[in-house]
Structures are given as C-alpha cells and as structure tokens.
Amino acid sequence: MKLDAKIPSGALATKWGAHKSNIRLVSPANKRSIDIVVVGTGLAGSSAAASLAEMGYRVKAFCFQDSPRRAHSIAAQGGINAAKNYQNDGDSVHRLFYDTIKGGDYRSREANVYRLAEVSANIIDQCVAQGVPFARDYGGLLDNRSFGGVQVSRTFYAKGQTGQQLLLGAYSALNRQISKGNVKLYNRHEMMDVVVEDGKTKGIIARNLVTGEIERHGAHAVLLCTGGYGNVFFLSTNAMGSNGSAAWKAHRRGALFANPCFTQIHPTCIPQSGEYQSKLTLMSESLRNDGRIWVPKDKKDAEAIREGRLKPTDLPEEKRDYYLERRYPAFGNLVPRDVASRAAKERCDEGYGVNATGQAVFLDFGSAIERYGRTEANQLGIENPSKEKVIELGEKVVAAKYGNLFDMYNKIKDTNPYKSPMMIYPAVHYTMGGIWVDYNLMTSVKGLYALGEANFSDHGANRLGASALMQGLADGYFVAPYTVGDYLADEIRSGNIDTNSPAFEQAEKEVVERIDALINNNGTKTVDYFHKALGKIMWDKCGMARNAEGLKEAIKQIQELRAEFWKEVKVPGRKDMYNPELDKAGRVADFLELGELMCLDALTREESCGGHFREEFQTEDGEALRDDENFAFVSCWKYNGEPAKAELIKEELTFENVELKTRSYK
Amino acid sequence: MNLTLKIWRQNGTNDKGRMEVYPISDVNPEMSFLEMMDVLNEQLIEDGKDPIAFDHDCREGICGMCSMFINGEAHGPGRRITTCQLHMRSFKDGDTVVVEPWRAAAFPVIKDLVVDRGAFDRIQQAGGYVSVNTSGNTLDANAIAVPKKDADRAFDAATCIGCGACVATCKNSSAMLFVSAKVSQFALLPQGRVEAKERVQKMVRQMDLEGFGNCTNTGACEVECPVGISLENIARMNREYLSASLASAE
Amino acid sequence: MATKSALLGSSLTKKYWMALTGLFLSVFLIVHLAGNLVLLGGKEMAENFNAYAEFMTTFPIIKITSYLLYFSILFHAFDGILLTIQNRKARPVKYHYEKPSANSNWASRNMAFLGTIMLFFIVGHMATFWWRMKFGELPLDAAGRKDLYTVVEVYFTTASTALLHVLIYVVAMIAIAFHLLHGFQSSFQTLGVNHPKYTPLIKKIGVGFAVVIPALFAIIPVYMYLNQ
Questions:
Q1: CB contact under 8 A, B129 and A70
Q2: Are C and A close enough to touch, i.e. 3+ CB pairs under 8 angstroms?
Q3: Distance between CA atoms of residues B114 and B50, nearest Å
Q4: Domains and CATH numbers, chain B
Q5: What whole-number distance in Å separates Cα of residue A363 and Cα of residue A313?
Q6: Which ipTM did the prediction report?
C-alpha cells in the first residue's frame, strides 16, 4: 500500500490558498441531497457540524454525552494560540509554524502545520464574532499570555477556562444550525461501527445509549471528531467517557492508525492518592511560570516528608534540589512538557518522591510569593516591610494570577497551596497519535475523515501548550468544510444511501453479536478491573519511559488480559436499556486492542523523540536521542485481523523549510 | 469510615421509583463522592446486583454532567463545587447520606440518578447564539473594543456549566439562573447586542414551554451554583425582557 | 408569543405584575398607616380620624385610586395563585430530604402561605370596617360624619372578643412583615433593578419598611386595648 498525503505542490506559504481555490465544489442544490455524519461534538465536531450545515449539507451530529456542550474540550484551561501578533513581539505565521514543528520534535507534516498556523488568526476573529468572552486589557482589546516552549505572547485565553468558552462558542454555532433544522442532533448516542462498502464510507451504526436501540445512519461522508485515547491508561486527565472506540472501529475498517505511541504526559497534575482513584486532574502549565519544582537533596529528608515527620516548609533551601533548574539552567522550570515529566519520574524512581506513594514532587510558590510581595511593597511605598507583610502582599498577587487553580487544588487535596507547596506528578494528557489523514483530513478510507485530536496530523511527537484548541477549531471551521467538497463532488449522483445494503446488515450484525457476547458473558470480574489492569501495564511499560524488553512483556500481558476479558468479564443489566457498564465494556474491549498496537508502535520506533522516550536511545546525560536518518517518518499501521499482525506502512517526512536540530534546553 | 447511603432507584422514566438503603464501609476520606459511588457500584456488580446509574464525565467540575442532590442540597454540602468535587472528608463516620436525582418536570429521570437535561439544550437552540456565519471572514477580532469590565462580566456569566443545580435547588424548579446567564453573556457584548431583544424573547418563551417554574427570587440558585453565577444576571434578563416586550411590535 | 394574552403572557410578565402590584400595595400601606396613626390620639382625635375616613371614601381621585387598589389586591392574589400552580407543576415528584435553610430564608420560600394569611385577613378586615363605613348604617359623630372611630374602638377594646381581634390583627401584621421582608427587595429584582451600588441600599430600606410599617400598624390596637 502506497500512501499519498496529497500535499499540494508549490511553496509552503501558498499551498493552502492555492488548494482552496482549486478544490472542487458542490453546488448548493446538490449539497441539499448530501448527508454527512459528524461523530463527536467537541471543538472539532461542533465547529465542523455547524460549518457544514451552514454550507448546506444535511448533517447529523452524534455525541455520547447528554449534551454537545459536555465534550471534553470543555476542560482545556490555558488558552489558544494564534499568529495575530497583537503584542508586536515579532510573531508571524511562519514563527508559529516553526515553533509547532520544533515542539513536535520534527515528526509532523510541514504542510499541515503551516496551514494550521495560517488559519489560526481566523479562529480568533470567528470566536470573537460569536461572542466568546476572551480576556481583554483595559483598552478593551484582546489580551495575550505566553506559554511553554515559545518566545512570544500569542496565547488568547479566558481565565483558566478557555476550552469551555471556545466549546460553548462552537456549541452556539451548532445550536443555530440545529434550530434551523440543518443539523439533527443525536445525544446519548455512541458510534458502534463505520459502514464501508466498495472502499467508500456509507455511514455508521450507532447505539442509542438510553434505549439500547441499534440505528443505521447512511452518509456520503463521515467525520470522526472523537478526541484522543489517553484513557487507555485508565488514569489520565481525560474525562471518564473519553474513548478510542470510534477511531479503533475506523482502524478495523481499514483506516490506518498513525504514531499510536505518541502520548503526551503532562508534568503538572495532582498526584494519585489511592487505589480508588478514578481520574487525574491537570493543573495548568501556566503555573510553571512562577512555581519552582523541587525534591529534597537527601533521601532521608524525602522519607521524613513522606512519613509526615518533616514539613516541606521546614526544609532549608540548601537541602532542596531544584532539579529542573539544575539540569536545564537555560529553561529551568519552563522546559517543555515531555522533558519536565521525565525529570520528575527520574527523581521519584530514585527514591526522592514526597508523598505517601513516593510519586510526587513539589511545586513551590514560596519564592514567587516573596518576590511579588517585595515588588508590591515597593510600589506601595512600604519601607522595610515585615516578612508577614511581604507574604501577605505576595499571596494577593499570586491569587490574582492563579487563584482558580489554587482553589481547585485546595478542593481536591484539602491543603492550602499558599502555605505549603503543591504536590504534583505527571499524568497522561493528550495523544498526538491518531487516525492517519491526508492533507484533506481524509483517512485511508474514502469518505471517512478525522479531525482534531482524533487525527495524528499536526503535533508530531509532542504538542505545545495551547495548540490543541487551535487544531480542533482549525480543522472544524476552516479545513474540513472545504476539503470534503473535493470528495463529495463525485458523490452528487449517489442519491440517498441505502441503509438496507448488505454492508449495513453485516455491520449491524457484528455490533449486535459483540454486545450480546458482552452482556451474556456472565464472568467474575468487572469492566473496571480489566481497565485498571490494562492501565497499569501501559503506564509501567509504555508510559514516560519505554524499553524493548518492557514493551515485549506488555504486548504479551495485554494479549493475555484481552483473552481473560472475553472469558471473565461481567457486565450487569440489560442491553435494551440505559446501561453505562455495557457502554464502558465496549470501550475497554477496544482499548485492550489499541493498547497493544501502541506498545508495538513504541517497540518499532527505535529512537527517542518528543513524548516517546526509549531508554536505549538517550545521551550520556539522559536526554532524548532522536534518529532522523532512520525514523523521520510517520508510522502508519494497517489492521490485519489482530493488533499483533498489524502492518507498518511508512509515510516519509520531508522537511524543506526547516532544518532538523536537536532540541536542547540546557 | 462507614456510611449508610439512601439512594433513589428508578428503573426508567415511567417507573415510580423508591429510596433504597446501601451500607458502605471503609470509605476513605480522600475519595471524591463519585469515587465512593464507583466503589459501591463495583460491590453491587460483584454481588450480582444492578449498579446505580449516575451522570458524570470530566470529574473536574467543568463538564456539568454530574448531578446529585445530596443530603438535601444540589451537589451536596459545600459551596462552589460540583458533585465530583465533593470529597468524603465532608462526612463523618456513621452518617446517613441521602442521594436523589435532580427533580423537575422538565428533567425527567432516565434511570436512578440520571436525568434528561435536553430542555437546556433546546433553550439554547431557541436563541443562545450570535447569528454569524462560521466563515472566519468576520471583522478582525480587535476591530471592536469591549470595555474590560463588560468583557469580564460577560465571562463570569459564560462560565455556567449547565449542570442544572439551579433548577434542582429552586423550590419552583425555575431555570432563570441558567437562562439569564446565557442572555447576559451576549447582552453584555457588542457582538451579541445586535439581536439581544429577539434572543431574550425566544429563550424565555422556550423556557416556559419546557415547564420550568417561576422565579421567586429566593436566591437559592446563586448559593448552590457550583460556579457562582450571580443573581444580577436574572435581574439583567428581567430588564432585557421587559424592554424587549415593551418595544416589540406584537 | 402571540398565542398568549399580552397581560399574562410569559412567566416573566406574570412576575412583573406581581412586582408592580406589590409595590403599589406597599405604597398604599403608608397612606393607610398615616390615617390609622391618628387613632393613637384617642378620643380627642376621633373627629380627625372620621374626617380622614370620609375623605378617603368620597374624594374622587382617592376613589379612583381605591378601585385600582382593590384590583391590585385581587390581581396580586390571582397572579400569585397562577404562579404557585405552575411552580407546583414544575416539580411533580418532591425530594425525600431537603435542606432549604442552607440556601434561602424562610420568608422567601413561603410567600404564597403568607399571602394567603393576608388575603383572609383583608377580607375580614374589610368586612369589619370598610364595608360598614361604605355601606353600613353608622352613628354620626359631633361633626355629622360617620363615626368609624367608635366602631374601631369597640372592636378592639370593649367587644367580648376584643382580645382575639387584637391577636388576629397582630398575627396578620407579622405575616405582612415577613411578606414584605422578601417581597420589597424581590420586586426590584424582578423589575430588573440590581446594581452593586444601589441594591444593598434597597435591601436595607426593604428590611426597615418590613419591620417599621407593620409594627406601627400593630401597635395601634395593642395600645387601644391596653389603654381602655
């Protein structure tokens, strides 16, 4: 199988413009007879459904939540990047493109990333016009902040709830089309399979999660906007319902899965507190602007802190190890996410962890509070302020900047982060890998598209902060609505899709058989038992650091676990009514296959890049060792009956506009 | 920590439903309320019983999915939190904890503690948007300056997570806080001002059609709202609706 | 919108009427109280009181206003009943356990109950005084006016059930006090008046109004009863 990414010819900066001008169009009259199914209603799904409906297509939108507004895009905190250069700090489309390529450790496609940077500015215009209340300065114009890994301020934000505001914006655009009758919404519905006939997508099989009914929905094109698969790790910052099933079903129907092992592990999350833990909570990256990360220098002190005999605030400065500042003097606490995460793991593995489980480091605002307090005292003209006064003033400044995050920490941990340093630990956050798509965002199955986190295209091996929102909305508002025309121009004569075709019959039959198998299995172990077991394997062997031996073990263990799942899983209740355990069982069954493919991918990528760190491939001082000569490609996996038999197809990456360099933050 | 849970069980919308008692032992105070429910459900499944259905998703207080009426209050004791942010340290050993679904005619129970909040979506669909195309060919984002104060207040209104605690708490099951938050967000921004009059009328009309109760200004919604949406928004909607009704041709 | 009557179209319109009639009735309370306070002057002021009573029942502008008043009372009650019925319908299945004291005050949750007490009181009150003044045969005072003063005096002092009359009156005033405690500031909120600078002031005035006006009303029969 030869992969064609369909990247337009011409200079990088003119590719998208020229492509858009030359793309085939569907006339308004014909659009009215074309059905499009959009699965998922996060940033990518809502914006795509709204835009396509507005263009005149007949759209059906599906989400498993009770409302489109609850998709997990809502939880994004920090912001959205855009090359607006409002701050006049030298930002440009090219600079955003370059930062993203470099941040992704040179494992993404130049043309896609450039297009992303190009349309980023339109996103902000669009959102403002929709009434998204971005933060503004006193002059009434939009404010920006700066994020990790870049040297300009290009991040637009709405306090710590940017994702929420952007999603509500897209949701309102979707609502507008629903009210006009251009979009039909199917909430509490889950896509169970993609129907493919003669190499073309014909629709989906969906399940009404309230009634258990299986439905057939014919469509000339299907857009998967179903997010990432971080929940394969059981514990992640994803929502409980976030799943990889739609992507996996597409994969089984012929869509290639690209770079499945590229997982982003975010360094600043609230650590796990016990076995019952159901998910992990992210603390925005922005905290690293002012927080200093440390563990005790002496293992005895770490032990004393773990056992509660020593308070962190009582440990003097000279006995603390600010390990990021020590290892990376140039970037210090602001090294990219993958680097910060690995460094925390290294310290904890060495026995310097600071919470009961030994899996936490401190994020300390003590010196920031003091620094801000002194500045504030100066500004207020207080001479020789007392230490208490300085701290009081400093805490106020810190509260104004990060108040909501500090409150969130306090709610979860019941400790006051102003008085005692926060404890943090890395957690799975985002998956750069996903369904392979060409420049038009079409997968290797005709008429099947993937948008947002569900595809693999823009972030390479590591995503920069505030870029996920940008990609979701770029794909949904400004890319897919145009590029689908190129394919659909040939579909205008297809007429309505026949949902009684053998392909639909067969797909539905398979779906029903699988549900029956799950519900009638009557084993001895709950779905969560298997999910937790899988998560542990993945985290231990395919997490922040991986090695060949561990990955081989993991593959074997997952295969065994999968076999046990189908033998021993116990799903209560009935299939013809609301049954969340059944929904969960289906998702975990898919994770049990996807997890294996992730390990296989990690095993074959014999280099360290971005979020993928192979212990065998590191420099003498423990930094990632990338191998551009042998691994500057996208690993695309073709399904062949089971994960272990997947075939690796390579999409070579060519870099004509940037020079490949080793990332160094020292 | 040992607790006695009294939980509402209802097998579908048309079932009458009843309270059932579940003892639970060894509850860790560091658990969130939903994690405690997870543990209970695991036990129920292992015992061959039907687990308790409840809505939840992000478990960090932003998606608005979780929705339990605990010990007489929406999202339980504690202020400015959703159910998923309620931790077991808020309870004492030996406590009895009563858990019920949101109760409102407009929110029919789907199963146990899960209710259908589609009414909220339909209210938004009635007018909770700015009628601009998604072309991206709009004005430059900085073409219209918005006073910071207005932008901040619009943001505060826009932080509503749509959980429905206001309806659940209100003795009249009124949705005024929810609807007014959306009306306010747009009314405060120049982009939303253009069709503000039509919007408020359409949204209020849909709110009434859904069968929510009326606002008695008890203020309970504001107290129980997990994100602190202010009663000022209700007043603003009252104002907007009044001027829209007086000015309308019908 | 066109399908419903303009007067009671939406939930919000009903509330506007509630607020407007409520505020109007509050203003009336002041006027009514002003006259009643004359009663505290005792027998010497009896003729002034009767003059006030006559003025109130005959002066044309007051007469017109009084019809507006009767209408307001009836409409306020009718509208309140409509709202209450809708509110009950909005929650057909009640909670098993509720803790409303955690988030709202008692008066705000019991406006319909307090209103019902008041309605009964107003009916009795009007039958006792207003009806007799307007349509009844009353003895005339020295100035030849209907002697309402004596009617009041007998009712609260020498009648065999005078103590009961005083008690009912005081209880009704307490109900009015609680009704106003919530209703006064609530009507401003309903009409959209909510401002960080002025609302605290409105709330303070509301509390003052709710305490002072009913208290002054209640003092009169108590004073008369104790001074007989």
A1: no
A2: no
A3: 14
A4: 3-110 (3.10.20.30), 118-247 (1.10.1060.10)
A5: 12
A6: 0.98
